[in-house]
Design brief:
This protein is of the alpha/beta class. Helices cover about 40% and strands about 20% of the residues. The chain has 12 helices and 8 strands. Strands 1-2-4-3-5-6-7-8 form an 8-stranded mixed sheet, sandwiched between helices.
């Protein structure tokens, strides 16, 4: 399979975004939105197992190669920026996968621009300020971007922060730490992201999301408690929940091939059919 990867700067209004587009086939584009402080590059372990489809990643404002805006932004405003990005890339409709903070932005994007989203995958995420908080030690660690500046610090806090397989996979953690340190967020950019999500909730309008939605959740996630993902799946009318047994906050990366297969099945066959297959597929612990 021929893989074409393009990295570029795209202007949306006054904001410039670093964007990577990877084309492995002619399938409908999949927009990947990452967690707080994380660049699109961190999706690489997942992308390499995702064949026959174009994938789009971007660095949020103040993260990686995207300049930091001087003023803070709301989730509504950044959702408008995402809509502008999709339009600039020449697409009218995309499938969207959001991870953690990116899952919140994916919800807001689908809510504000429903015609631009076909199907939605919400991964290790929650409905905002109304959520049940994660474990105190994990939440406290999230308040600082230090893990992006110091690989050694990340290795110390990763088991507490991320849970799951990251505890027992030092090689994976080494690579993950290297990638995070290569393009860290600015301090102000990280604060903007924290500020945006601390003022946001999707709970009042989740029941109006009409998109077919797959909610992926780990049962060993210190940051996002499983109950929050159950709330998402119960409030979105056409949503299904898949619980990854033993999955921590980064199960999309630590079990990339398995997750890529599940996501591809969902996008190709829809929520109901994908869920029936998930019930029949054993999940490794």
């Amino acid at each position: 399979m021929t893989v074409q990867t393009k990295s570029m700067m795209v202007s949306v209004g006054t904001q410039r975004l670093r964007v990577t587009v990877e084309n492995r086939g002619a399938g409908r584009p999949l927009l990947l939105i990452n967690g707080i402080g994380a660049t699109g590059d961190l999706f690489d372990p997942f992308r390499q197992h995702f064949g026959d489809r174009e994938t789009i990643c971007f660095d949020a404002p103040g993260v990686g190669g995207s300049p930091t805006p001087m003023l803070p932004y709301s989730m509504r405003k950044i959702a408008g920026t995402v809509a502008g990005l999709v339009d600039e890339l020449g697409h009218s409709t995309v499938d969207v996968l959001g991870l953690s903070w990116g899952g919140a932005l994916a919800q807001e994007f689908a809510h504000r621009h429903p015609g631009m989203v076909r199907r939605l995958i919400l991964t290790a995420t929650m409905p905002g300020v109304t959520s049940l908080p994660g474990r105190p030690a994990a939440v406290a660690t999230l308040l600082s971007p230090m893990r992006y500046y110091s690989p050694e610090y990340l290795k110390r806090v990763a088991p507490t922060l991320y849970g799951g397989a990251i505890r027992d996979n030092p090689e994976l953690l080494d690579e993950h730490a290297r990638q995070r340190a290569a393009r860290p967020p600015s301090n102000l950019g990280y604060i903007h992201q924290l500020s945006a999500i601390q003022r946001w909730s999707s709970l009042p309008w989740l029941h109006r999301l009409a998109h077919r939605t797959l909610v992926l959740a780990g049962d060993d996630d210190p940051i996002v408690r499983l109950v929050n993902c159950r709330i998402l799946a119960s409030r979105i009318p056409d949503a299904r929940l898949h619980v990854v047994k033993g999955g921590g906050h980064l199960f999309l990366f630590t079990r990339a091939e398995e997750m890529a297969t599940i996501v591809a099945d969902f996008l190709e066959k829809g929520a109901a059919k994908a869920q029936r297959q998930l019930r029949l597929r054993p999940t490794a612990g």
